[in-house]
Prior knowledge:
The protein contains 13 helices and 12 strands. The strands form 3 sheets. A 5-stranded mixed sheet has the order 4-3-5-12-6, with helices on both faces. It has a 5-stranded mixed sheet with strand order 9-8-10-7-11, covered by helices on one side. Helix 9 (204-213) links the parallel strand 8 (194-197) and strand 9 (220-224). Helix 1 packs across helix 3 (30-44) and helix 6 runs antiparallel to helix 11 (282-291). Helix content is 42%, strand content 21%.
Amino acid sequence: MKLQQLRYIWEVAHHDLNVSATAQVLYTSQPGISKQIRLLEDELGVEIFARSGKHLTRITPAGEAILQVAGEILRKVESIKQVAQEFSDETKGSLSIATTHTQARYALPPVIESFMQKYPEVSLHMNQGTPMQISEMAANGTTDFAIATEAMELFSDLIMMPCYRWNRSILVPRNHPLAQNPRPSLEQVAAYPLVTYVFGFTGRSKLDEAFKTRGLTPRVAFTAADSDVIKTYVRLGIGIGIVASMAIDPEADSDLVAIDASHLFAASVTQIGFRKGTFLRGYMYDFIQAFAPHLTRDLVEKASHCHNRQELEALFADVHLPEH
């Protein structure tokens, strides 16, 4: 069994069983990958992939179990490389982040700007997606950090740490009836069509919970994952917008009226996390603390040794989170 064979089956599985596409990504030949997979299957005595002719059709049950272990081995290999690089040159390397549009567009720019000034030789990669996609990217090693607010149950394989609290604002055109009401009730908000986030994005569950608790069923006219798209459709008169307050730009959005909605909805908490067992390089600790100053290296190291979410919650129970 060779490490290269494990990498081949892992990459094929994560390229929709497309051997040709995998070969292009790995800069090798399609026949070479197919041969190595066959050799590995022969050695193990089981099929990792089911086939129809020359085409791979699905991952077998044995293959699923083998791929899970292969992923763990490949992540350990990557950690060994990280350890070596940390001792050879602590200022060079790469850092990849998976997050939502709102975090990437509004919360992260100043953090990334200062980080890149401090570490100009660290290559930084941003990946945007749904909470499910973010969780998968961090869990399978595609990214180093996950930054998310919603669907924390998806992140059971990650060490997730609280960064800051935030709430929402209602956005309406200047001629809208609510524009003159600085403190509308939930009933008044529910009287209009809503333009807001797709379920599972940027605190949407807190919004849904608030209406449900009051026995209200608002009409959601339009949903999007992108705060700027929501604003566009508010301007078109599709409905009133509900967005993260951090996503409001006083200059760019001066044609809209922003109404603080923190009296209507419970605050949400954005968290940052990484895979259990990940070796964090020095600049990774610095990035975490730049994003959330209370997450010192000592606190992050304590978090990395927690065995479950209950221990994590206990560790951060007395930590005061800033408002964003």
